[in-house]
Design brief:
420 residues
Length: 420
């Protein structure tokens, strides 16, 4: 026992087995201390908290292990109570560090490895490349859009300039049209005046011719049939010239503006009586039955002269274009429709083909029947009078059955309208 004690305490037995144990312990202590120092050094150099904690714990465990082996060298097998307590403390501290190290493992595992970082970096590089490509494509698209915008802007500027030129040309054209229209109105007015005064001035010479013909007839023998036939032709020609002059004067008259003094409430019955009186002979010769019912609208706001002209032309047409195989019936009536006062003139004459002649019905000097004499201005006069007073006219006709004219006058109580 003494020899074992000597081996542990002095150099006398340093060359035996105890000496080798001492050298081994010294080497282990040195290794532990070196490992602990390296780990502490690496922990100080790390900037990530998890790895620094792990290295510090490993270094601390290594330090505790080195401290326990150092106590073995110092105390040997006959160690006292103080050395045993220190060993227990060092062991407990090492165990605590190991437990802390075990708890730090999940955080340590969460730290990516070098390969993981390499792969993540590779993916990141790929994403960066794709983003660069996307940015390049976006820049290219943006440049293309900017180019298109520039082109469209240039086109818009060009189109705007062309539009401005077109507007200016249209303004010039409108000014020319206004000027031309003014000249045309003036010429039409001059022409109307000429027709009116010419027809009026020609009536005197025509009447003189009629008087001369009558004077010559009285001087010549009456038993000459050839002279009678000649004078009949002369009378007919003079009468036709006189009628045409009257028609021209009437056409010229309706072109002239109507003053407010010429407008007023006109009785339909009174105007019809006046027209019947002027057409007494044609009505008697034709055997016409003329009836009227103006109960729904006994009066209209209109020019008396124009209303006489309307009824005179319509009734004259009914007489001219009657059906020889049956008695002529003419019926006049009135009614109110919305904003219009309607005058209806209906007959059972020969009628007309509206599908064929409807578009030309109110044209000047247009005639659709040649078996009776006519001037071709009656319907034109009717249409012009109605248009000049903001009215309208409708025609309903069946060939072989009869014709109905509907005259729509502006209802004065609802809407007076602008009148020419």
């Amino acid at each position: 026992m003494s020899s074992h004690t000597n081996t542990a305490g002095g150099p006398a037995g340093g060359a035996g087995p105890d000496g080798l144990i001492l050298v081994g312990e010294l080497l282990v202590v040195t290794a532990y201390l070196i490992v602990a120092g390296v780990l502490f050094y690496l922990a100080l150099k790390r900037d990530d908290k998890e790895r620094r904690r792990v290295m510090l714990l490993f270094g601390f465990i290594g330090l505790m292990g080195g401290a326990v082996h150092l106590l073995n060298i110092w105390g040997g097998p006959a160690a006292g109570d103080a050395q045993l307590i220190l060993r227990l403390i060092f062991g407990v501290l090492a165990l605590i560090a190991a437990i802390r190290l075990f708890k730090a493992i999940p955080g340590l595992l969460a730290i990516p490895s070098l390969n993981q970082l390499t792969r993540a970096n590779s993916k990141l590089q790929e994403q960066v490349e794709e983003r660069k490509k996307a940015e390049a494509a976006l820049r290219e698209t943006q440049q293309e859009l900017e180019q298109r915008v520039r082109e469209r802007s240039a086109q818009a500027i060009t189109a705007n300039r062309e539009l401005e030129r077109e507007i200016e040309n249209r303004k010039k054209t409108e000014r020319r049209l206004i000027s031309t229209n003014y000249e045309l109105i003036k010429k039409n007015a001059d022409l109307d005046d000429f027709v009116y005064y010419a027809s009026r001035d020609l009536k005197g010479p025509v009447l003189n011719v009629a008087g001369l013909v009558e004077a010559i007839r009285e001087e010549l023998p009456t038993d000459n049939p050839e002279l009678g036939q000649l004078f009949a032709h002369l009378d007919d020609s003079v009468a036709r010239i006189n009628r045409k002059l009257n028609n021209l004067a009437e056409v010229s008259r309706i072109q002239k503006p109507i003053s407010e003094e010429q407008l007023g409430m006109v009785s339909l019955t009174e105007v019809l009586d006046q027209v019947k009186e002027s057409l007494r002979e044609p009505l008697q010769d034709s055997g016409a039955l003329l009836r009227a019912d103006f109960t729904a609208m006994p009066e209209i706001y209109f020019s008396r002269d124009n209303l006489i002209s309307l009824l005179n032309n319509l009734i004259s047409n009914s007489i001219k274009y009657r059906e020889p195989q049956r008695p002529l019936h003419i019926f006049l009536s009135s009614e109110l429709q919305d904003r219009y006062a309607v005058l209806k003139v209906q007959d059972n004459g020969i009628g007309m083909d509206l599908n064929r002649y409807g578009q030309q019905l109110f044209s000047l000097f247009r005639r659709f029947h040649d078996h009776v004499e006519g001037s071709g201005i009656g319907l034109y006069i009717i249409k012009r009078i109605m248009d000049n007073n903001n009215g309208k006219i409708e025609v309903q006709s069946v060939l072989g059955e009869g014709t109905t004219f509907l005259l729509y006058f502006v209802h004065h109580e609802q809407h007076t309208g602008a009148r020419v």
